[in-house]
Design goal:
Length: 87
């Protein structure tokens, strides 16, 4: 995936069902990302850099174990600031 981080114009990305265990902090380089679908992987933790993705509206982390709780807290915090929505 390293080449992916240079595609800064990407607005939607689906990486569902890929057994991904870690999201690299470089994901935040995708500064125009609006929708990120990571459904049904093995992600347990999110890098703090995800919070810098200002255009991210939808982040789907359903069926990712412990990460789902972290995701719910992140969505709640973002919603309080009016910058995110839940799909």
């Amino acid at each position: 995936m390293p080449r992916l981080w240079h595609l800064t114009n990407v607005t939607r990305l689906t990486l569902a069902h890929n057994r991904i265990v870690e999201i690299p902090s470089a994901m935040a380089n995708l500064e125009n990302m609006e929708i990120l679908n990571l459904f049904n992987n093995s992600i347990e933790e999110l890098p703090l850099s995800i919070s810098t993705m200002r255009k991210l509206r939808i982040l789907n982390l359903v069926r990712n174990g412990r990460c789902e709780h972290q995701y719910n807290l992140m969505v709640w915090a973002a919603a309080a600031g009016g910058t995110a929505a839940v799909e």
